[in-house]
Each structure stands twice: as C-alpha cells, then as structure tokens.
Amino acid sequence: MVPAPSGRNWPVSRLALLVVIEAAIISSHQLTPLMLLTALIALSLPRANRRITLPPLAAALVLQAIWLTTVARPYISANLGSFGKALLSPDGNAVSGLAGLGAAAGGQVAVDWIDRCLSAAVVLMALACFLRRPWTRRSGLPLVALSPLPLLAANSYGGEMIFRVYLFSLPATAFLAGALVLRPVHRPRLRLLVLCGLLPALLLGLFFGYYSKEEMNYFTPAEVTAAQYVNAVAPPGSAIVAVTGNVPGYYTYYDRHELVLLSQASAATQSLLVDDPVAGLQQALNGATPGAPVYLLLNRGQQAECYLTGVLPANIQSRLESALAGYPGVSVIYRNPDATVYRFAPSAFLSARVGRPATGVRPARGVQR
After folding, report:
1. What DSSP designation does 243 have?
2. CA angle 295, 356, 342 (to 5 degrees)
3. How remote is the C-alpha of 203 from its chain's centroid?
C-alpha cells in the first residue's frame, strides 16, 4: 500500500493542491468526477489505505455536492426523471454503445471485431497478471481497474458509457499487462520472442481502430466552409437539422440554435424517414419552435458515417435531396462539392404534406451500396 506522505496523513499544502485539482475536474466535465469518486471509494476499501484516500475522497464528495446543488442544479432538476429511469435499466446501459454490426459496412464489421479483440486482449492480460504476479494483488491497481464498472450499469451516457469505462480502466489494465510481459524471467529469449509477436499484434489492432473511420472523421475544407456558413446566417432560435452529428462545428452555438439529428429521432420517425424522406423530416421537425427558420445541412461526412456505421441507410442523403428538389417552401441557399444547405419556410414546408400517406417501396434498413 502507499505509505502516508512525510510520515503523516496529508501535508496541508499538498492536500490543498489536490483539492484545487479536484475542483478543476468537477467543474470541467460531467463524467470524470464520477470516475474519480468511484476510484477513491475503491481505494478506500482496504483499511491500510484510508488515511491517504479518505481526505481527498471527502473533499471530492463535498465539491461534487456543491457543484450539483448550484451550477448544475437546473440540468439535474430537468433530467432527474431520466437519471432515475436509467438506474432501472442496468442491462440496457451496459450494452447500449455496442454497434449493431448487421447494418454496418463489411469492412467496418471486420474492424469492429479487431477492436473488440484488442480490448479483450488487454483485459485478459491484466487478469493474467493479477493471477501470476502476487505483488499486484497487494497494490491498488486491481481496485482502480474495476472502479469504473458500477457506472456501466448506472447510465448509458448517450451510448458511450461502455467506452468511457474501458478508457478510465485502461491506465491500470495497461500497467498490469505490461507487468505481465516485462518482468525479468529466466529465459529472456523466450520473452523476446513473445514480445516480438505480441507488441506488433497490439499495435496493428490500434492502427485499425484509430484509422478505420478516417473517411468520416476527416472534414474537407468545403465541409468546414458550409458549416461556418450555416452558423453565420442562421439567426438565434433557428433549427439546424442534420442526418447525423458528423458536421464540423455543429455544436459550436448549441445554446443559440435548436439542433435536430435525424439519427437520434425515435424509431417511428426513422422508419417514416426511410419510407418517405419528406414526411419523416416533417415529423422530426414537429417539436421545433413554431415559425423559427429551419436549415438542413447535408455533407460528405454524414454520408460516410451512414455507410460505415449503418446508423441510417447509406443513400438517405441522396433520397432527401431528390425528394426536396423543387419542394414547396424549400430552397438551396448554399452548395459546394461536399455539402448542401437548405432553408425551409416552416409554415409552407410543414403544412405541404402533413397527413399524406407515404409512397414508394420501402428500402431495406441498413447499408445500401
């Protein structure tokens, strides 16, 4: 266990510095403070650690309580019901971020399985180290590695919780994995052979995970220009619609504009969007502020995301463009090779086909090449 610094619990200056760091963490992010609290609670379980961990834990709890009851109070009050509902669905929270690979592009399915194997390999190596290296069981590393897990069941965090839990566990699991393979052994040549095979395999998996979505992660200058144009011309209170959030600077003025993502619409709205793009778009805009200007931004990055992930059919943008061509109340106000911006006259667009049944043959869900 970690000995008490300077032979006592905490020097005042060092504890004060730690409290300042905790205050910066709590005031700058929603999830990191919770991960900090779970780690400190886990480290406080062994009695020998408590003189060291309880003071920063108490400070973090007080700071978190102050933040939640002051600055974050309006948000907490507005979303308290959804937080309570999430607590009742731990199984759904745990798997909410896993991609439905059946709708993704073939190459992306392979990449996702490589990513999962890489993550599993790191966790299995950490577990093997825990079993084979007795000294790790006397350290706080296993506790830190396991501490984020309760949050996995508490909330889905918009489908990202499983990834955040893995990342917050990674420093400890990576250290344990390294301790497994780097400990001096009696047969150094065997260890060298293992490392020569293991490290390139892990590095190759990292390259696949990091660069596999470069088509959607990279924005061309034309896409950036189109997004800047929308932010410049849309007056406060406007609704800015996109197929997905894969737009450069889409959240820059989130406090001024109402952001509508078709990929986050209800299942019924998405189904209608696939049947009839205009009717689905009208339904997605039903909750928008009446009379407010509406802008639709379509770009290459959103199309790439639909193709790679299957969040919506890969041809949804081209179908939207075809359906909106010459439609009453809809005009193209900006176009370049990688993006198109539409402006809607809300009264004309929303009333043009309300109640009209969808037409055409419904395409298959998922990626269409």
Report:
1. S
2. 15
3. 23
**Other beta carbons within 10 Å of 150:** 14
Which has the closest alpha carbon to 309: 224, 230, 367?
A: 367
Q: Dump pLDDT digits (tens) for 250-270.
A: 988 888 999 999 998 888 999
Task: Enter the tokens of residue 233.
Answer: 């011309």
30 against 169, higher pLDDT: 169
The verdict on pTM exceeding 0.85 is no
Question: Which whole-number Å values give the CA distances from 167 to 58, 100, 154, 293, 305, in the listed order?
Answer: 25, 21, 17, 40, 23
Q: How far apart are CA 354 and CA 280, in angstroms?
A: 10
How much is the CA Rg of the chain, to the nearest whole Å? 25
CA pair distance 316, 276, nearest whole angstrom:
10
Burial grade of 26 (CB within 10 A; 0-12, 13-18, 19 or more): buried
Burial 247-284 (b: 16+ CB within 10 A, else e): bbebeebeeebbbbbbbebeeebbebbbbbbbbbbbbb
Is residue 114 within 8 A of residue 209, CB to CB? The reply is: yes
**Pairing mode, if any, of strands 339-344 and 294-299?**
antiparallel
Predicted pLDDT at 336: 96
Q: What contacts 311, CB < 8 A, 6 or more positions away?
A: 103, 244, 263, 305
| E strands, the chain, in order | 239-242, 258-261, 294-299, 330-336, 339-344
SS3 content of the chain, % helix, strand, coil (to 5): 65, 5, 30
Cα 67 to Cα 47: distance, rounded to the nearest angstrom: 29
Q: Distance (Å, rounded) from C-alpha 281 to C-alpha 262? A: 8
Among all chains, which residue has been given the structure tokens 């490392």? Answer: 195
Domains and CATH numbers, the chain: 1-71 (no CATH), 101-212 (no CATH), 218-352 (3.40.50)
